[in-house]
Amino acid sequence: MQAELYPYNTPPWLRSHAATSPDGAVAAVITEAFEHSMSNPTVGTLRTSDGLELTKCNPAFLWSDDSRYLAVPRWCRRFGLFLRQRLAVVDVAARVVYVSRFTHWLMLPTRFAGGELEVRVSSRFGISGPWREPPLVLAVPAALDAFIQMVGAYGCRTDAEPGAAADGGA
What are the tens digits of pLDDT across the range 47-71? Predict the structure, then answer.
């Protein structure tokens, strides 16, 4: 079997992904992800062993080094037309999901240590352009004050999008 070529061998295009928190307490998995349209990144349902089920997620998720947070890009419609990503941050200890107000064509969490989340962000021209430099760096939990809290994400309906006011920013 031949290895897939770039970009299909990178996290945003993975068909599945599983990761256990560094302390071994919670497992997160997207068992089956599909391209959201031909030759584009994939989308699936993120499930955690503690009861979270979050739809429209990309398999490029990453645990924080303290096992409290899980960062995952989540697909949304911008202006009802464009498929973009928001950054979702799951606070496992508080059982709460926060979703960014900002959107980008594609995001890739690359490092989550010491309270800093580093995220690669796609070019403003779309997913085929190079990643922006420098990467987006967020201080967690402080940055979550600017995010939208998803009510009832654990064990309740999670397919609702944040309000129209959250569609601002790019």
Answer: 999 999 999 999 999 999 999 999 9
Q: Would you tell me how many other CB atoms lie within 10 Å of the CB of residue 163?
A: 9
What are the backbone angles phi and psi of residue 163, rounded to the nearest 5°?
A: -55, 165
Count of the separate structural domains present in the chain: 1
Q: Tell me if 44 sits within 8 A of 33, measured CB to CB.
A: yes
Per-residue pLDDT tens over the stretch 36-46: 776 688 999 99
The domain of 161 spans 11-167
Domain assignment of residue 40, yes or no:
yes
pTM, two decimals, is 0.85
Which residues in 23-52 are b (16+ Cβ under 10 Å) and which e? eeebebbbeebeeeeeeebbbbbbbbeeeb
Which residues make beta-bridge pairs with 110? none
